[in-house]
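Researcher: Good morning. I'm working through a list of sequences from a screen, and I'd like to move beyond sequence-only analysis. For each chain I'm collecting a predicted structure so we can compare shapes side by side. This is the next one on the list. No need for commentary yet; just the structure.
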Amino acid sequence: QVQLVESGGGLVQIGGSLRLSCTASGTRGGLKGMGWYRQAPGKLRVMVATSTSVDGTNSENYANSVKGRFTISRDILKDMVFLQMDNLEPEDTGVYSCYGNSWGGRDYWGQGTQVTVSS
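Model: Good morning. Structure tokens for this chain:
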């Protein structure tokens, strides 16, 4: 059974940085895509950044609100994904969940890690 475990959340001041990590276990053949979603209080979960293997390379996608501030990276051999978050804003506050997509098209989610940006 595939499991995703996140780490690295916490409390940070405006303009600060955090680095989230996610490790997948139980995959067979790795994951086609991995990424990060955020759910703010009272709001729907939204995509933050994803990295998908396409023809041997990684195709990255970012929400407009984080472009230029966040960077997603993957260690494909270790089934890990990272999110470097710089210049954090209060609007970045929320529960960040790791996402994985198998080559067979199944989706997996981590439990989430809280990120709070204080003003």
